[in-house]
């Protein structure tokens, strides 16, 4: 018998009035096809398997495509197939490597919801044993699964609106979880929900498990609403009450009212037809901010001063760059877990790539300074850290094996690059740590402050005839990488600048 067909108003809730599109991503053996067929049946929608569509397009099975065209040929066919589904209605099951092309993610996300099905490497190996699919790495099957899972991890997490452990659940239970999500009944991550079996055990031991779950959801909602009231975010509360399917991102800082991130992200979400809203979480402590994030359908946070170090103890995983820098400016949430990254260092590195191997001075010794030092060292620069407090400069320099000194030591230095990382000069501050007479024409001056666009330091550097890089460039390059981590979609610096204009 056909499952329950959900009413068509779900199309409005799910996709802002567009066609209902649900995409399933994940490694081979995570059950995308089985779950997809059940979902399509219950929703009364077409089931679209991209691997099957690729085979039809090529007129041959996938192993033969790999033999004749190689992986590149297969990926090109996959890209064409997913592009053809950009505005499709249905449940889409994708190949395990589809997310390696950010253009695929943009097409799957357009007017749709993306669910990541995950499983432990051992479970995957058991499920794909005996498959005739060709390997992609030349490694043993076990090594290949572990290697590709690690290589694709950020892309999987970024591409997903929700993450579900499919290694311990049968397909019908996974389909139930997804249906709850798209109905707007899920107030928390799918992996925090009790399974049908666990609800049955609760009912047997304590009474009605579903009633307990509903009461818990009401309690969470009351706490959520109270925090939103305290944060002055009643508009976000109203948006979620009207549209529980909405996903949220935010900048977390104190202060953060000056940030351009809400403008940028909301324009990008509209550009890519994503059902997301970006807001501000401004509060005196990071722990309360992260508690609010846990109560909301938050996918990502942009972390700014003074919380880049404070958030680290509250995260489940921190990547190697953020750990080395000692600061997190990007948090990705999926499957009840929070992942920390640092993209600030890329925002410093990219605009200075033409100065590789030069002598650099970093002004400041805080979190932004650590990211700058890390970036400059990656460009093989000789780095000196200068700060008001020489002990702070020494502490940062010792971490990275650099020279250090006090701010007054800058005079007479022979720097090719100066990176300013302190808040001095940020509106309404009109000060500059350096005057035109302190600078030489050959020096490139990069001020990480971006409000105002032309800071007092940038004006002084221009007067001295220096090459200048405004803080907006750091913001542009770090934001491009941050958007990829949070959404899986690659954006160019040019598009970021266009969105900010």
Automatic annotation (TrEMBL):
It catalyses: shikimate + ATP = 3-phosphoshikimate + ADP + H(+); shikimate + NADP(+) = 3-dehydroshikimate + NADPH + H(+). The lineage of its organism: Archaea, Methanobacteriati, Methanobacteriota, Stenosarchaea group, Methanomicrobia. Belongs to the shikimate dehydrogenase family. This is Shikimate dehydrogenase (NADP(+)). CDD domains: NAD_bind_Shikimate_DH, SK. It is an enzyme of class 1 (oxidoreductase). It comes from Methanoculleus caldifontis. Pathway: Metabolic intermediate biosynthesis; chorismate biosynthesis; chorismate from D-erythrose 4-phosphate and phosphoenolpyruvate: step 4/7; Metabolic intermediate biosynthesis; chorismate biosynthesis; chorismate from D-erythrose 4-phosphate and phosphoenolpyruvate: step 5/7. NADP(+) binds at residues 364-368, 448, 471. One of its GO terms (molecular function) is shikimate 3-dehydrogenase (NADP+) activity.
